[in-house]
Amino acid sequence: MKKHLFPIILLLLGNTINAQQDFFALTGKDSPRIEFSDFRAMNSDGTSGQSIFGVSSEAKVISQERKTAVTEDKNTYNHAQSMTLAALALDSSGNNLVYMPMFSSNIYVLNQKTKEITLVENSVARVTSCDINSHITRMTTGYDGNIYAINNAGTQFLQITKKNNQYAVNDLGTIKDDPSNGKNSFTEMSSGFGGDMIADADNNFFVFSTSGNVFKVSTKELNAKFVGKITGLPETYSVNGAAVNSKGKVVVASAKGAALYELNLENLEAKQLPGEQNLHIYDLASKYFANERVAAVAALANIDVYPTRVDEQNITVNVNDKAVKGNIKVNIFDASGKSVMTTNLSVKDGNLNQQIQLRNLVTGAYIVNIAEESGKILLSKKILVTK
C-alpha cells in the first residue's frame, strides 16, 4: 500500500485535493451605489446558496477591547451592517467571516454558526471616508493562516493575526510598483485600485484590480509586479471579487450586476459560469489557495478535511454522502511517506463531522488519507501544520 501511496504523496505536496466546497460572497443590492445586502454561500457553478447574514439581520456585536456587547450608531460608516462593506475573508478555521467597511478602520468577525460578531477596534488602519487611497477593498486569508488586507493605493498592507482568541493588527508597510510595471501601475487609480486579492501556497498574493489587471505581491519585497490582464470579460466588466475555488481556479465577480467568471492564473483567460447573471458582488472569499491543484484520488465529492493550514492542533473530517457507511480509516503521512498517525471513525447514515487532535506533529506538510474498511481511498489531502 505504502509503495503505491508515496507517488501520490509527492503529487499532493504540490497540489490540493478536490472537495466539494463553496466560496462566499459579499453581495449588494441592485443599486448604482454600494449598498450591502448579505453574506452568502456560493455554489461552484456560480449560483447562490444559503444567505448567512444580511443588512436586516439582528446583529449582536461584542467589542474585543471592552469585552462587552456594544450598540453601534447606524448613521455612520462604523458599524457591522454598514452599506459600504467591500472586503471579506474566510479565516483558517473555515467558520468565521472577517470583513471591513470600506470607509472604516473597524474589523468585524462573524461566526457563521452563532451569528455573533466580534468588533476588533484598531488604530493601525488609517481609513477616512473622503480619501479613496485609504479605502480597504482587498482582503484574503494567507497560507500562514493570518488575514491580509490592502488599501487602494497600497500604502497600507495590513496583517490581522489571532492568538488566544484575540485579534491584533500589524501594518507591514507600503507596497511599491515593480520597476517593470510601466503604465500598468499598482498604485494608480485607473490600473491598480479596487478589486480583491487571493493567496498562493507560498504566501504570496495576487491582487485583481477593478480594471482586470493582475499583480503578484511579494510579502518579503513588498512590491507588486504586473502579471497581465484578464481576457474574456465584457469590456465594461468591473472586477470586484476574487476567490480560489475547489478546482484551483480563480472565480471573479462584479459589483455592477453581472455573471461570475472562472479563470486560470497561468493564462488569465476567463470563462463565464452558468450561475447568477445579475448579482452585485463586492467581494469573494474561500478557504483555497492558488498553486494547489485538483488530483484524481478523491473518489467522492462530499468528503473533506479542513482546515488545510492547521494552527490549533486539530482538523475536522466531514462526510456527507450516503455511499459512505461503517468505519473509515484516517491515516496521516509525513513528506517521506511515513505514517505518523492513524485513527478510525464511524460514519452514521452517511454523515460525520468530527475533530481529530494532531498531537506531537511537528511543523511541516502532511497528507491526510481517508479510506474505507476495504482499503478504497476516499480522499487524500495536503495539510500544513504550523506552531
Give structural notes.
The chain has 387 residues and is mainly beta. The protein is 4% helix and 44% strand. It has helices at residues 2-12, 189-192, and strands spanning 23-28, 36-42, 48-54, 60-63, 68-70, 85-90, 96-101, 107-111, 116-120, 136-141, 147-151, 157-163, 166-171, 176-177, 196-199, 205-208, 213-217, 223-229, 241-244, 250-253, 261-263, 270-272, 280-285, 303-306, 309-310, 314-320, 326-333, 339-347, 351-357, 364-372, 377-385. The strands form seven sheets. It has a six-stranded mixed β-sheet, with no helix packed on it. It has a five-stranded mixed β-sheet with strand order 14-18-17-16-15, with no helix packed on it. Strands 25-31-30-27-28 form a five-stranded mixed β-sheet, with helices on one face. The model is unreliable at 6-21 and 293-299 (pLDDT under 50).
